[in-house]
Amino acid sequence: MQLRQIDKTLIPTCTAGDEVGIGKLLSTIMRIWALGLALLVSVTPTVAQGQTLPTAQEAAKAAVAERAVRPVDPVSLVTEFDVNGLKVLVKRRAGTQTAVAGLFIKGGVRNITPEKGGVENLMIDAASEATVSFPRQRMRMELSRMGTTIGSVVNYDYSGLTMASTRANFDRSWEIFTDVALRPAFTTDDVARVRNRIVASLRDDTDTPDSYLQLLQARVAYAGHPYLNDPRGTVDSVSRLTSADLRGYHKQVMETS
């Protein structure tokens, strides 16, 4: 008896005497096919009941969203350049609706002497009271209308003017901010008001034992060092400062190096 040849590579032509061997061979082939089918099923992704595989458009959106949440190197967002000796740093904040600016004077207490202690603090604080183009009342109304804030910071190493505004009102806020920095009014009334406020704060340092002890500790720790000079000055040094002192110091520090 001659069997039909199924596959020359798998089942050779046989006679009736080889039927037992053919059966074993067919059984082996079936097991191999079953194993291959099992492996194919195991590597096929499964989808839960009621769910469908994402479309190409959905997969693309997911990829974009994944890239959006990846951390961005903060250094790549900062641009640095020089304008007539003035170092400028610009940091982009994509998506935010606010803008912040700062003008910093390096040096801190190294810029002052004990006799003129607190002059930088008083100058920066009084500058934000009024300018040549924006008298005190007008400036208050403009800043309040736009929701813009202009402030100051003073410490042992640097001082600065700061501004925060919305993007929509940045141009007008910047105009006021630059006038504060470059053309402060330093009127007698404004200087006296700010000076009295600073003197009252300095007097508070000696009102309680704890604050007075900290003051004495600083005098011992910083003896012979520029940090011995408090950037806010003393009651005596600040009380002697006048509008003319502020104008002279402003002219001295508001120059590019």
Task: Record the SSE blueprint.
Blueprint: H1 19-42, H2 56-68, E1 78-83, E2 86-91, E3 98-106, H3 119-127, H4 136-146, E4 149-154, E5 158-166, H5 170-182, H6 188-204, H7 209-221, H8 235-240, H9 243-253
Antiparallel strand pairs: 1-2, 3-5, 4-5
Helix pairs in contact: 3-6, 3-9
Report on the architecture of this protein:
The N terminus is likely disordered. The strands form two sheets. Strands 3-5-4 form a three-stranded antiparallel β-sheet. The termini are far apart. With 257 residues, it is α+β, with helices and mostly antiparallel strands. It folds into two domains: 44 residues, no CATH class; 180 residues, Metalloenzyme, LuxS/M16 peptidase-like (Cytochrome Bc1 Complex, Chain A, domain 1, 2-Layer Sandwich). Helix 3 crosses helix 6 and helix 3 crosses helix 9. The chain is built from nine helices and five strands. It is elongated.
What would CATH call the architecture of the largest domain?
2-Layer Sandwich
- Please bin the fraction of helical residues: 40-55%
Strand order of the largest sheet: 3-5-4
User: Could you report the average pLDDT, rounded to the nearest whole number?
Assistant: 82
What features would you highlight for this structure?
257 residues; alpha+beta; Cytochrome Bc1 Complex, Chain A, domain 1; 2 domains; two-stranded antiparallel sheet; 9 helices; 5 strands; 46% helix; elongated; disordered N terminus
Brief synopsis:
The protein has nine helices and five strands; from the N terminus they run ααβββααββααααα. By secondary structure, it is an alpha+beta fold. It folds into two domains: 44 residues, no CATH class; 180 residues, Cytochrome Bc1 Complex, Chain A, domain 1 (2-Layer Sandwich), CATH 3.30.830.10.
